[in-house]
């Protein structure tokens, strides 16, 4: 056959086989399974965790990342409220799409009206790809290990993106960061703001 492409022919053959198997499974009747009587009380199902503040009942949504000059303070308190100097777990919007995000640790550094201000924390080692991160406009500083990470992995905080955090959206307080480390992070943040 003139003009045939062996790679394309093979790919189409595999695609056809996958489609046929999927069609067979979808149209095959389900086998009857014997019903079993439960002898214990089932646990109540936990509701799915919403992925955005608005889905959790927030009316205003995320106003965007903080871009002013933050008044960085170290004020952790041994209480149930989140304070600057503490690492908390909360919903963090993605930089490229604030309507999406994920639950992650954040180092709180300041307040902005009713919002807390924080820095994204990660256990990814950005020292290995420092140049690539810098080209992408992301700068990190090492903060060591702590109770915010169950596996006690070394962590880093991103110092050139300040995230607004709804205090009511804080899921848990992970740890109080050492004051000397906090001050080193604050110096790096001030380089960008």
TrEMBL record:
InterPro entries noted in UniProt: PemK-like
Superkingdom per UniProt: Bacteria
Region called Disordered, residue ranges: 20-69
Basic and acidic residues: compositionally biased ranges: 22-33
Pfam families associated with the record: PemK_toxin (PF02452)
GO molecular function: DNA binding
Protein's name in the database: Growth inhibitor PemK
Organism, as annotated: Tessaracoccus aquimaris
């Amino acid at each position: 056959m003139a003009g045939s492409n062996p790679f394309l022919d093979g790919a189409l053959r595999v695609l056809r086989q996958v489609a046929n198997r999927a069609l067979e499974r979808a149209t095959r009747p389900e086998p009857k399974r014997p019903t079993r009587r439960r002898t214990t009380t089932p646990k109540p199902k936990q509701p799915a965790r919403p992925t955005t503040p608005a889905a959790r009942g927030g009316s205003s949504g995320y106003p965007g990342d903080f871009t002013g000059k933050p008044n960085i303070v170290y004020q952790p308190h041994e209480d149930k409220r989140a304070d600057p100097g503490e690492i908390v777990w909360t919903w963090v919007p993605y930089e490229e799409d604030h309507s999406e995000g994920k639950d992650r640790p954040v180092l709180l550094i300041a307040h902005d009206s009713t919002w807390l201000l924080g820095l994204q924390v990660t256990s990814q080692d950005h020292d290995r790809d420092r140049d690539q991160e810098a080209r992408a406009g992301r700068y990190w500083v090492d903060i060591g290990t702590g109770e915010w990470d169950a596996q006690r992995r070394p962590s880093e905080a991103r110092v050139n993106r300040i995230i607004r955090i709804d205090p009511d959206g804080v899921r848990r307080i992970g740890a109080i960061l050492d004051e000397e480390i906090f001050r080193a992070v604050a110096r790096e943040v001030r380089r960008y703001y």
